């Protein structure tokens, strides 16, 4: 059944009013992994594009946007993905972000539809076309440029809009939240200019829901001022923390991926939270993209506004760096309910894992769960999602970003992908695996499954 799914994926309607994911059985045995990558099941390529296409009402509308250079085919490049499993499993959504750092991008946030255009899955603007038109106008219902998003356990989609159009700060950056049951906006705050600099680029939101949905904090990475902005949703307040651990490393500012080289000095970008345990503190893990290190801070310290409200650099003692290092840069990261972190390895073109019970970088706690020199290039979006069957899935967006950076993208190739796999299958046999009592490895299903 898995092979049938792979062969027929391009012809299937993945979700929509009457459609569902194919239920995929993963009964694949794996060879044990001891510090070297072996044959765990491959991540499934759920979608792939040579170029992004959008859900225009007619070909005339598409051609009009092309004539106006609102849409330049081949220019839009996705960065992130996240998944919403509806309560009845009938209104599931796969989100995709396309930041406007290049011209010709008509939509900055959408959902993957069941439609195809010239062999490419069609992206439907979210929540509607109106939110994406004329971004320079700074209308109340707007999205200018979105790098990353996050779906929380309260059925909300959090959208971080940088407000930057190409190289210009066109509108104030903002944090938005949509009720995914109604698709209506439920939260909107513009980020105070006092916390920003002219070079600020807000790239990653991480949502920390406490005991109740009303008690939510959002941690926002600014990769160019090397800081984390904290938003208390209930109080409507913001503050900023800055530390040397959020800076890029000059020796890691040159990226080499499959023979292409480009320079990028991005600071803090990858962020994820330790599992939530009532009554216990959480860690926010983070790293600069152009660095080899992983860092952490207790969220109780970040949430303490009085620490930082007068001086963002007031508390260097609360930020920590692990001694171990990666061999290469990494962008996005995500952590599962067992405290296993997943992250991309840029030059290696692999997906790594780390058991956070042990030392970062240690061969006893770090491993590789997937290796594919074609499909795993530049993993810029990564989420761990629990489906309605209570299985955790790893969702990854990859791209040939190095070709975009070097202006050598070939539209005859498959350039962008969304991949997915069941977490327990991919960590099985690695040093990252936490074995349940009895030592049994669970099989079962994953995907958007009909209840």
UniProtKB/TrEMBL annotation:
It is found in: Secreted. The chain crosses the membrane at residues 21-37. It comes from the Eukaryota. It holds the Pfam family MRJP. Keywords: Glycoprotein, Membrane, Secreted, Signal, Transmembrane, Transmembrane helix. One of its GO terms (cellular component) is extracellular region. Belongs to the major royal jelly protein family. This is Uncharacterized protein.
């Amino acid at each position: 059944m898995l092979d049938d799914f792979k062969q027929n994926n391009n012809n299937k309607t993945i979700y929509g009013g009457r459609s569902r994911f194919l239920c995929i059985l993963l009964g694949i045995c794996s060879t044990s992994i001891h510090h070297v990558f072996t044959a765990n099941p491959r991540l499934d390529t759920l979608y792939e594009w040579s170029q992004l296409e959008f859900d225009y009402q007619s070909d005339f509308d598409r051609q009009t946007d092309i004539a106006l250079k609102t849409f330049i085919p081949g220019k839009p490049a996705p960065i992130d993905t996240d998944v919403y499993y509806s309560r009845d499993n009938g209104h599931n959504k796969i989100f995709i972000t396309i930041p406007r750092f290049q011209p010709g991008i008509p939509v900055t946030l959408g959902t993957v539809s069941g439609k195809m255009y010239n062999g490419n899955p069609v992206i439907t603007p979210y929540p509607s076309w109106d939110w994406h038109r004329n971004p320079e106008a700074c209308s109340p219902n707007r999205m200018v440029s979105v790098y990353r998003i996050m779906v929380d356990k309260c059925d909300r989609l959090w959208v971080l809009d940088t407000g930057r159009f190409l190289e210009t700060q066109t509108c104030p950056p903002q944090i938005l939240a949509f009720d995914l049951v109604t698709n209506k906006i439920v939260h909107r705050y513009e980020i105070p200019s006092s916390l920003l600099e002219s070079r600020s680029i807000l790239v990653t939101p991480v949502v920390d829901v406490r005991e109740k949905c009303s008690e939510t904090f959002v941690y926002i990475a600014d990769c160019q001022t090397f800081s984390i902005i904290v938003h208390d949703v209930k109080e409507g307040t913001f503050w900023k923390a800055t530390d040397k651990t959020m800076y890029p490393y000059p020796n890691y500012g040159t990226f080499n991926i499959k023979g292409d080289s480009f320079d990028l000095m991005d600071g803090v970008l990858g962020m994820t939270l330790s599992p939530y345990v009532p009554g216990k503190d959480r860690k926010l893990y983070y790293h600069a993209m152009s660095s080899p290190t992983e860092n952490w801070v207790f969220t109780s310290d970040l949430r303490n506004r009085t620490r930082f409200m007068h001086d963002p650099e007031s508390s260097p003692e609360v930020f920590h760096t692990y001694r171990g290092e990666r061999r290469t840069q990494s962008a996005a990261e995500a952590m599962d309910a067992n405290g296993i972190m997943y992250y991309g390895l840029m030059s290696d073109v692999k997906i790594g894992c780390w058991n956070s019970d042990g030392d970062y970088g240690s061969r006893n706690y770090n491993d590789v769960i997937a290796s594919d020199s074609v499909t795993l290039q530049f993993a810029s979006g990564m989420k761990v999602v629990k489906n309605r069957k209570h299985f955790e899935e790893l969702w990854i967006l990859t791209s040939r970003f190095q070709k975009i950076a070097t202006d050598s993208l070939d539209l005859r190739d498959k350039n962008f992908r969304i991949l997915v796999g069941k977490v327990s299958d991919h960590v099985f046999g690695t040093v990252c695996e936490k074995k349940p009592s009895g030592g049994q490895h669970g099989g079962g299903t994953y995907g958007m499954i009909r209840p």
